[in-house]
Amino acid sequence: MFARRLNEAIRAKKSPLVVGLDPDITKFPPGLKPAAGASRTEIAEAILAFNKSIIDQVADLAPAVKPQAAFYEEYGWAGMKALEETATYARSKGLLVILDAKRGDIPNTALAYARAYLAPDKNPHAFPCDALTVNPFLGRDGLQHFVNAATSNQRGIFLLVRTSNPGAADLQNLTVQETKRPVWQEVAAWGADWAEKTRGNEEYSPVGVVAGLTYPHEAQTLRQLLPHSYLLLPGLGVQGGQIADALPCFDNSGLGALLVAARSIIYAFSREPYNSAFSPDQFAAAARKATMDVLRDLKAAGYPLQ
Amino acid sequence: MFARRLNEAIRAKKSPLVVGLDPDITKFPPGLKPAAGASRTEIAEAILAFNKSIIDQVADLAPAVKPQAAFYEEYGWAGMKALEETATYARSKGLLVILDAKRGDIPNTALAYARAYLAPDKNPHAFPCDALTVNPFLGRDGLQHFVNAATSNQRGIFLLVRTSNPGAADLQNLTVQETKRPVWQEVAAWGADWAEKTRGNEEYSPVGVVAGLTYPHEAQTLRQLLPHSYLLLPGLGVQGGQIADALPCFDNSGLGALLVAARSIIYAFSREPYNSAFSPDQFAAAARKATMDVLRDLKAAGYPLQ
Q1: List of chain B residues whose C-beta atoms are within 8 Å of the C-beta of residue A127
Q2: Which residue range is the domain that position A239 belongs to?
Q3: CATH number where A33 lies
Q4: pLDDT for B34-56, tens place per residue?
Q5: How many structural domains does chain A have?
Q6: Nearest to B80 among A80, A103, A190 (CB)
Q7: Is pTM, for the whole model, over 0.80?
Q8: Is A258 within 8 Å of A298 (Cβ atoms)?
Q9: ipTM score of the complex?
């Protein structure tokens, strides 16, 4: 079971912190930044080198990494190759890989996405990830294929419920007339139903949800509504989410939620206070220090796994 | 402007029919079906060969093709390479390419997807497509980057509003308490606002919408709500959509809407009545005949461009 592997990784590393791998070459340290006019292959090599350095430094501090597909798709098939090699490398270092691709489609197409990323039929060509983020706009029929694939192949999904961006409220917070609940709670109810049906005897199901840490009230409500789902909490750092708000999302054992930080960790070398202690060449060491600092703050605030 | 190029292509070919390129190797004719155990490169080559044969046969009958990304992502970077080569080939044959990838994310990530597919900064690495389908679940802030990129770079987007699948109603048809309108009409209002802001002096904006032909009442309502947007109408054929229901979606010049058919055309060789007239090796000729038959039916029903 995906959730059991996640539990084990969090306990072993005493960390629920997921490092987001969102490589933006314009933010790379000078030593890795591709030259103007670089080919896609050269850019993809720089991305892979950057990611490997970060992975080497955080592998003992994080249960998982979360590559964001957009930053790789930007370089077409060469970028997708770097994404795949990043995922393979991360797994070889004992990290779980949560691919943040937010896929969602009609049933026939959702099944193809499930084959691509959750390998329900042990597809030898499937992408080497452990979990995938999925988008609920098209409804339950397509999503069911992701749920089935995750369940049958020991993988996980994270259903978008309440995202971390300012515009999230535009659709997710509309009030539904029939139930007087916001749209995000309707989607949460789908997740709760699938979680209950798929968890078997486990405390946590392969069906998790995305809950932006930038909306702590909603995230904490989701904790109540989805007792058997992992919450993936993006938004720490650059987006403004606070560690104190994450604490109520964990269970008493420190499980049940994942805190995500991306830009604030991988580009720490260019931010205060790390930019005075680390040179750009030491970007990976700066990322390690930033990761350790988040964990220190989390534990100081009372996170159970000390 | 994307919409002007679309207008010109529809008028030149007297056809609003978009051929969906959803390559499923299990449905390929025996001569192209990869052997069990084939490598991803071999599979990608088969996909590209299949698509090129279809493109050669429909290039004079369709203004655009619509590859569905999932069927390529299934084979990782090798599949993405076949997708890119398919798009490049289609454009070389005078077809517009609408990439059906249904992307959507928070602003920072949406910008990366826009760079990937809509090349707002003339990104030399951008995917060679003319338009992209986008998902509204995360709200207007991320979508704004797609709108901006499409406008500044002569490309288009198609915003998912009311999709063609049975489960579409789960979220899209929830009634919003404040406005008494379904969620899909709220999203349509965003589209109408962007269409008005981006069309300039043109009749049609670069901002189109997806309206499943399987829900003709909704599609026709969208025609009224979005007078300056192209409607992308999937669902003809295998999904059950009817030609008669598409007719009210076109303007008096036969513009303003695109009818999509995928499986019913590209796998026509294995379906009645084409399977008796064409051998599996003649799959491309069967696809051409199926395309011509849809156009014949559309014109017989009164489509303006005869």
Answers
A1: 73, 76
A2: 2-300
A3: 3.20.20.70
A4: 999 999 999 999 999 999 999 99
A5: 1
A6: A80
A7: yes
A8: no
A9: 0.97
